């Protein structure tokens, strides 16, 4: 008997799989608005109402609503399939974005901003839908799945790199609501293309045989780590916009945030090209906690937007390896027939953290100073490391 053929890995291999290029194209188009919505909403609301605290609170409300609705929506996806659930949910989300735009445009009462933005909670976990397809296609190839996870994280970072720049350009060049309007159109178009690719869609499981992901060993501490990591992202975004505004360069905020995503994207692609057997989750979190001190130091000591931009580029390099390792752990520990639910649960934790971080960052930037507010992401990253260390989550490698 001849020995089994070695597994093929590498980014090129991923896109030789039938249908992979088409569903990836649709997913990237739908995912780009994820990096646009928050920045567009913050700029639109703060410019109209003159309050970063209000802008942060509104975006936090929408993210919190998404955190609650996400796992329920993902459970429906697992049971009924991606196309039947994700597309109608996207339509509801787009209507929520348009409602927010109209409320800001026509100076509606403040409470309507919260109600309208909460409608975006119907946005599907777009990255999770794509990762579920890779898990289905590469279920017998763990090395290739690691590479696919790294590609997906790099795609997330690419969208967060381009999204804020595009949002800042549209809101600054045309009208304040232009970013939100363009994001809604791109989201709907991308989801139409993605869900049209039925050949690569994982088969639905009407009756799940697996336990709830929350009952799977190791998942609760991972959820806590995702929440703390989300607080890093949420606070960093709002604080950076406020800092750029205080420096008289509000239009440059998107570009500065894009550098953080660029550092993460590059690190993620490099990480996916190597075998990570020796990389532990706690090491990634320790690197993130250490590097998050750089923006704080740059803002407080240098007082320069360009120094901050360089610090964010370096600080971002710990993000993608952390998220890839964490998501691999989630995939390994979640029952196969509840994979969308398990990944969406992690996104729920992430969004809960982003919401909390956005609110805390907005409050600190307004009541303390934008430079001092950079202590918030440092504290959140330290909490994530502490949770992983105390629960020994960090002692588990990111591969099977």
Any idea of the CATH class? Mainly Alpha
Shape verdict: globular
Counted beta strands: 0
Number of domains: 1
Per CATH, what is the topology? Growth Hormone, Chain: A
Structural class: mainly alpha
**The CATH H-level homologous superfamily:** MFS general substrate transporter like domains
Order of helices and strands: HHHHHHHHHHHHHHHHH
CATH architecture identity: Up-down Bundle
Q: How much is the radius of gyration in Å?
A: 20 Å
- The portion of residues forming beta strands comes to under 5%
Number of helical segments with 4 or more residues: 17
Biggest pleated sheet = none
Throw out a few tags for this protein.
single chain, 400 residues, mainly alpha, Growth Hormone, Chain: A, globular, disordered N terminus, membrane, transmembrane helix
Structural notes for this entry:
The chain is mostly helical. It has a single domain, classed as MFS general substrate transporter like domains (Growth Hormone, Chain: A). The chain has 17 helices and no strands. It has helices at 11-14, 20-31, 34-49, 52-80, 82-105, 110-118, 126-137, 142-173, 178-195, 219-246, 253-272, 281-291, 293-302, 305-315, 319-333, 339-367, 375-391. α3 packs parallel to α8 and α4 runs parallel beside α6. The longest helix is centred in the middle third of the chain and has 32 residues, at 142-173. Residues 1-6 and 394-400 have low confidence and may be disordered.
């Amino acid at each position: 008997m001849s020995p089994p053929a070695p597994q093929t890995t590498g980014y090129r291999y991923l896109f030789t799989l039938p249908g992979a290029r088409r569903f990836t194209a649709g997913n990237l188009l739908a995912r780009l608005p994820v990096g646009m919505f928050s920045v567009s909403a913050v700029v639109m609301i703060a410019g109209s109402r003159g309050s970063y605290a209000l802008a942060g609170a509104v975006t936090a409300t929408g993210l919190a609503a998404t955190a609650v609705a996400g796992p329920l929506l993902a459970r429906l996806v697992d049971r009924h399939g991606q196309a039947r659930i994700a597309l109608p949910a996207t339509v509801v989300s787009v209507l929520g974005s348009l409602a927010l735009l109209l409320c800001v445009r026509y100076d509606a009462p403040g409470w309507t901003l919260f109600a309208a933005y909460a409608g975006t909670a119907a946005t599907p976990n777009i990255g999770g839908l794509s990762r579920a397809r890779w898990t289905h296609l590469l279920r017998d190839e763990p090395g290739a799945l690691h590479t696919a996870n790294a590609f997906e994280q790099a795609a997330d970072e690419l969208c967060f790199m381009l999204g804020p720049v595009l949002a800042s350009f549209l809101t600054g060049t045309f009208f304040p609501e232009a970013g939100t309007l363009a994001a809604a159109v791109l989201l709907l178009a991308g989801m139409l293309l993605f869900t049209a690719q039925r050949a690569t869609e994982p088969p639905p499981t009407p009756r799940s045989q697996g336990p709830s992901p929350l009952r799977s060993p190791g998942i609760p501490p991972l959820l806590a780590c995702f929440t703390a990591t989300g607080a890093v992202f949420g606070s960093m975004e709002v604080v950076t916009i406020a800092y750029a505004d205080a420096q008289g360069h509000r239009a440059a905020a998107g570009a500065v945030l894009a550098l953080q995503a660029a550092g993460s994207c590059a690190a993620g692609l490099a990480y996916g090209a190597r075998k990570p057997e020796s990389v532990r989750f706690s090491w990634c979190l320790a690197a993130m906690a250490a590097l998050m001190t750089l923006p704080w130091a740059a803002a407080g000591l240098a007082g320069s937007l360009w120094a901050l931009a360089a610090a964010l580029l370096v600080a971002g390099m710990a993000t993608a390896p952390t998220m890839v390792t964490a998501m691999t752990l989630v995939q390994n520990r979640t029952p196969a027939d509840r994979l969308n639910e398990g990944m969406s649960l992690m996104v729920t934790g992430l969004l809960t953290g982003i919401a909390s971080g956005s609110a805390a960052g907005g409050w600190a930037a307004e009541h303390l100073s934008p430079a001092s507010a950079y202590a918030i992401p440092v504290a959140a990253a330290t909490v994530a490391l502490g949770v992983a260390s105390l629960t020994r989550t960090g002692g588990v490698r990111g591969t099977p």
